[in-house]
Each structure stands twice: as structure tokens, then as C-alpha cells.
Amino acid sequence: MPFTNFESRHFTAAEQETINAALRNLETALSPKLANLSPEERTQYGSINEENKLLVNKAKDYQDSQPNLSSTDVDWEEFAKDFNSRSLIEGVIQRLQSLYDGLRNAKILHDWDNYQAALTDYDYAKYKATTNAPGYETKVNEMRQFFNRAGTSQPPQDPEIQQ
Q1: Mean pLDDT of 133-149
Q2: Mind listing the pLDDT tens digit for each residue in 2-28?
């Protein structure tokens, strides 16, 4: 017998509403701070790599410990605000990424459970169709379209995995 019901941690209606409310609150809080860069702007501004982050950190360290060595051409108050904002955003991204990974994995298991149940239902419909029970032949014909006729049927892939 195949493994089924890998994922049995389901959301109650109250949990679903709590999650949706939390997401709405997060979207509301973040919305004024979000940036919408074009692909060209993303290329132009890029993302600083780890080595360049070390440079930024070193400049901040000098500004904090020996401000007399820092350039007067830099708005250090704005630098500090940018630094704090990027640090906060980086932490939020890491936390959201962790949630995303966990949710994605849970979704994969729920998808698998649904797929296995659908296969079981299809097999049942095929069996019932052989008994001439009403409606099952139509159901089998409608479900059959989702199967590869070459016999190499594979479980459905998450579109994000295929990227």
C-alpha cells in the first residue's frame, strides 16, 4: 500500500484568518517602504556582494569609532539610516525565506497527498465503470486526459521547482 497522508497538519478557519490578517498587516506596514525596480535598474544598482558588505561595515565601524577619519562628503546620518534599514530588511528577508521554505515543503506534501488521493479516486472510477455504474464512464473519460498515453506518467512538478 502506498504512503498517503504525509501531511496531516491542516489549518483551521481561525488559523487561516489569523495568517491572512498577519499578511495584510505585514503588507500594510511594508507597502510604503517597498521599491519597484525595473530589470535595467536591478542591473544598474545590483546587490552588493559579501566582500562589498565588509567594506560598508568597515566604513560604518570607522564612522562609529573614529568619525574624524570619515569623509565630510558623506551624509553619515543618512548612511546610518540606510544601514539600519538594510539590516532590518535583510533579517526580515531571512525570516520570510525560512517561512517560505517551510510552507513550500508543506505544500509539496499536501500536493502529494492530493495527487495520491486523485489517483486512488481514478482507479476506483475505472473499477466502477467496469460495473456499468452510472456516471463513472464519463468521469473516467474526463480524468483520462491527464495521463500520458506512453505510460511514463510522472507526479506533477511544482512550477517553481522547474525554473
Answers
A1: 94
A2: 556 777 889 999 999 999 999 999 999
82 in any annotated domain: yes
Length of the chain equals 163
Burial 135-151 (b: 16+ CB within 10 A, else e): ebeebbeeeeeeeeeee
Measured from the Cβ of residue 125, the count of other Cβ atoms closer than 10 Å reads 20
Query: Is 62:69 a contact under the CB 8 Å cutoff?
Result: yes
Host domain of residue 70: 50-145
Q: What is the model's pLDDT at position 52?
A: 94
Q: How many structural domains are present in the chain?
A: 1
The CA distance from 117 to 140, in Å, is 15
Burial class of residue 63, CB neighbours in 10 A (0-12, 13-18, 19+): middle
As a whole number of Å, the CA-based R_g of the chain is 27
User: Which long-range CB contacts under 8 A does 33-37 form with residues at least 24 apart?
Assistant: 33/85
CB 56, CB 48: distance < 8 Å: yes
**pLDDT at residue number 36:** 94
Q: Which of 2, 1, 9 is nearest to 109 (CA)?
A: 9
